[in-house]
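[job 4471] stage=fold_predict status=RUNNING
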Amino acid sequence: MTRDPEAVIAGVTVDTRHWIGGERVASTETFTDISPIDGSVLGEIARGTAMEAAAAVAAAKAAFPGWAATSRAERARILHAIADGVEKRLEDLAIVETCDNGALLRSHRRGVMPRVAHNFRFFADWLLKLDHEDFETRGHTNHVNWDPAGPCVLITPWNAPLMLATWKVAPALAAGNTVILKPAEWSPLTASLLADIATEAGLPAGVLNVVQGYGSEIGDALTSHPDVRRISFTGSVPTAKRISASAAANLTPLSLELGGKSPLLVFTDADLDLAVDLAVEQYDNAGQVCLAGTRLLVQEPIVEEFTRRFVEKASALKQGDPRDEATDIGPNIHTRQLEKIDGFVQRALAAGARAVIGGHRKDGQYYAPTLLTDVAQDSEIVQEEVFGPVLTLQTFTTEEEAVRLANGTRFGLAATVATGDPERAERVSGQLVAGTVWINCFFVRDLQAPFGGSRLSGVGREGGTWSFDFYCDVKNTVTAPKGWQDHG
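[job 4471] inference complete, writing C-alpha cells
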C-alpha cells in the first residue's frame, strides 16, 4: 500500500520523504509520527535503511568539490538567504514543531525559530571574518587555513529539533562541507521543511541531505561509512558510545554533546527571589533540556524559605496544551519517555524520597512538575539524567561541601550559581566541572562562546571558531623567506 508522502499540520504541508541529492526519495517502509499533545497521528514518515544512507552519502560526496570551491562570500550569501527563508516561514515552522515535539508555541515563535535564523546568519558572518594572523618562525611565514573536511553526518535530538539541527548544519555548510542530516525519529518534520527552505535559497543539490529513520539501522550505516569525514551528535550517552564504536574503524572525528545532571547552587547571600526564579525555570520545555539544573543545592540556613517560595511559584505554573498562549509546561515527547520519567520518580519514592510537589503522571503525556527531597547523593535520582520535569533538593553547609556535591556525578555539562558575593562566584565557578557555568542567570548563550561538556557530557567544543576548527581540516602553510629560490 502506498502511503501519503505528505503530512498536513495546522494547514502546513510537510513532505515526509527523504531529501537526497536535490530530490524527494520514498522508502518501502514508513514509521508513524505522533503528536505528544493529544496522541494524534501527524503523518507516515519514510523509514530509511542502509540503502538511503549510502545514497545520501554518495550525493554529499558528489556535491562536495563544487561547494568546497564556492567562495566564502557566496556561501555566506546563501546562508543568509536560508535565514531569510526561515523568517518568512517562521509561523509554519513554529506550529509544526510544536505539534511534533510538544514544546510551547509561544517559545517557538518568540525565541526558538528566530534563533534558527540567527544560527545561519551568525555562522555566515563569522565565516567572512574567520582569520588567523600570520606569524613568523625564523623568518618563515606561517599561514593558517580552514579547509572543508568533506561530507558530515549530523544526528540531532528531539527536544529542540530545528534549533539544535541548525546549530550544526549552519557551521558545517559555512565551512564548505556537505551535510547528511538525520533528525530524531520522534520529531522529524521541521528538518524536511528546512530542506525546502534551503533549496529555495539556492543551496545546490546534494549539499544538504535529510534522511529519516527509526531505530539504529540508518544511523549505523551513516556513522560507519568510510566517506563521512565528520560526525556530530547530540543525544544520550549509550547512543554516543555506539556511534563512537561505529566511527572508530574509519577514525572519523566526532563532536558529542550528551546528557547532563547539572547543579544549581544557592548560597545564603543569594538574591532569594532570583534563585527561586532560576530554579523554577528548570521546568522549561517540560524538563527536556540537557542543560537544566535539575539538582538544587541550597545552603541549610535558607532551605526552608527557599522551598516555601519555590513551591508557591512552581504551583502557579499552568500545564496543558502548548498551543495555548497561557501554558507554561507542555507534554513530554513520547509515552516511552513518560514511562521512563515516572520510573525514576517511583523508584526514588520507594527508596525514601519525598515529593514536595508532583511525583505523578497526569492525563495524556503530561507529567506533574516534581520536586523530590530526602535524596542521597549516590541515589539513582541524583546520579542519572531523567530528562523530565523532575528536580531534586539537597542541602549543604559549607562552600567546600557545595562544590563536592555539585561535582559528584559522572556528568559535567553545565552549572548555575546563585550568590551575591563576586569573589565566591569566581572561586566556586573555577572549581566546578562543567562546560558552561552561569552566575545569577541561566541559559544565556552567545554563539561565539565555546559549548560542550566534560566527563560523560560530551567530547569537543563548538561555537564560533571552535565550530570551524571541528568542521574543517585546519592547515598551516609555511613559506620560506623571500629569495629562497636563489638557494636552490
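[job 4471] summary: Residues 21 and 161 are 22 Å apart (CA to CA).
[job 4471] exit 0
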